[in-house]
Amino acid sequence: MEKKTLFDKIWDAHVVRSVPDGPDVFFIDKHFIHEVTSPVAFLNLEKRGIGVLYPERTIATPDHNVPTVDQEKTIKDKLSRMQVEKLRDNCKKYGIELHDLGSAHHGIVHVIGPELGVTQPGMTIVCGDSHTSTHGAFGAIAFGIGTSEVEMVLATQCIMQSKPKRMRITVDGELGKGVTSKDIILYIIAKISAAGATGYFVEYAGSAIRNLSMEARMTICNMSIEMGARGGVIAPDETTFNYLKGKQYAPKGEAWDKAVAYWKTLQTDEGAEFDKEYHFEGSDIEPMITYGTNPGMGIKVIDSIPTTEGMEGSNKASFMKSLDYMGFAPGEPIKGKKVDYVFVGSCTNGRIEDIRAVANFVKGKHKADNITAWIVPGSREVEKLAHEEGLVKILEEAGFELRQPGCSACLAMNDDKIPAGKYAVSTSNRNFEGRQGPGARTLLASPLTVAAVAVTGEITDPRDIF
Ligand SMILES: CC(C)[C@H](C(=O)O)[C@@H](O)C(=O)O
Ligand code: SF4
């Protein structure tokens, strides 16, 4: 029998039509939409007089443009208000489930999908958003699409896709103290570069991955896109089933047993071939941080920024441009650099385990005077749990400001911006120029490292202050 990868099994089960040498026509099980990339898609549908084929397969939430204070009031920013209102109108018109501001399951689209149990193994999931890759943590094929594809999915529940190449990244062994899944993915991207997986769909495997919680797995799949991959996937297992069991949209009763039996087949067959393989050792990974302006420019917190030795021409020029933007010099240690802001949030690390990790770390401590500390839950559900578990109290006593759910300072599309020239150590996934505000300087790290930075006011190895 043909040996298949997990990715191929799911892909092949969703091909509606194969065109020789052309893209496959591919069925989409679930479609998430938000206010940024859906309005034009709906507008075009309307112009063409086409409806939404399966409204029950689409789920909506406003997340990017929303303010994270006073969400119950009218949105002040006109463009943001219009976008959120458009989303509301479109959902109403086409009968699409909307998790609106203030409702029990409002939040970042990639946080609420798993939380509701909409995201399940074996599914194909798309959204007009690159970090749709997050959902791959459940053993689903999930990837970001453009606005014209959003339109296509709304109208036909299908898209046309060429099959990507297959890559497997195996991480084996134990992780050291203070090392989190964010460090694993920052380490991988630093090793293979921000373009290292371009054209591939990545499967993450190995004992270090298997041992991670669902939330930690989501952090890894979330950042697959930051190394150019189309998406990332992790085979479902007991951790996945336990997470999903009882969730609102998870199958129930007999349907659950049937689903689990199928989900258990979603493994890469022994001997199946990948186009490219990487192996890493968990024990080589240490707390990581980025120093430059793409997520591949990462080092261990204890390391120095690379020198330009061996770099030439445009590589050297872009490296220096990046360091100039960051206000850093080649070869200098990153530890001890002064920081102005910390941001805990986003679809990478805005879930309850992340907030727990930060709260446990800062309990009984206080943020440094030079730090503004924002903590933004990924969803209302996360916010609720953080209150119930007493985490909000701990964080507020430590000087953190709790804001309402949304993308917030992950990207400068709403009011939460880092001022020009200021340094922010952030649990999000992108450190591009201007990402957190014009001129803002972003360093990506794990929630634990961010907590340590909040307490000392400078780049710190979390292992130094456990
Ligand atoms: C606004 C949206 C289209 C964008 C994306 O596709 O990822 C955003 O979520 C991001 O993280 O940059
Ligand atoms: S939290 Fe950040 S990365 Fe995630 S969807 Fe929002 S803007 Fe994109």
UniProtKB/TrEMBL annotation:
Cofactor(s) for this UniProt protein: [4Fe-4S] cluster
Coiled coil (UniProt feature): none
Binding of [4Fe-4S] cluster, residues: C347, C407, C410
GO MF annotation: an example: 4 iron, 4 sulfur cluster binding
Keywords: 4Fe-4S, Amino-acid biosynthesis, Branched-chain amino acid biosynthesis, Iron, Iron-sulfur, Leucine biosynthesis, Lyase, Metal-binding
Entry note: cofactor: Binds 1 [4Fe-4S] cluster per subunit.
Residue stretches making up the Aconitase/3-isopropylmalate dehydratase large subunit alpha/beta/alpha domain: 8-457
CDD domains listed in its UniProt record: IPMI (cd01583)
Signal peptide limits: none
Enzyme class: lyase
SUPFAM superfamilies membership: Aconitase iron-sulfur domain
Gene3D superfamilies, per the entry: Aconitase, domain 3
Catalytic activity, as annotated: (2R,3S)-3-isopropylmalate = (2S)-2-isopropylmalate
Protein EC: 4.2.1.33
An individual GO BP term: L-leucine biosynthetic process
Family annotation (InterPro entries): 3-IsopropMal_deHydase_lsu (IPR004430), Acnase/IPM_dHydase_lsu_aba_1/3 (IPR015931), Acoase/IPM_deHydtase_lsu_aba (IPR001030), Aconitase_4Fe-4S_BS (IPR018136), Aconitase_4Fe-4S_dom (IPR036008), IPM_dehydratase_rel_enz (IPR050067), IPMI_cat (IPR033941)
Domain of life, per lineage: Bacteria
Pathway the protein takes part in: Amino-acid biosynthesis; L-leucine biosynthesis; L-leucine from 3-methyl-2-oxobutanoate: step 2/4
Biological role stated in the UniProt entry: Catalyzes the isomerization between 2-isopropylmalate and 3-isopropylmalate, via the formation of 2-isopropylmaleate.
Quaternary structure, from the entry: Heterodimer of LeuC and LeuD.
Entries under HAMAP family matching the protein: LeuC_type1 (MF_01026)
Family, per entry: Belongs to the aconitase/IPM isomerase family. LeuC type 1 subfamily.
Name this polypeptide is given: 3-isopropylmalate dehydratase large subunit
Source species: Cecembia lonarensis (strain CCUG 58316 / KCTC 22772 / LW9)
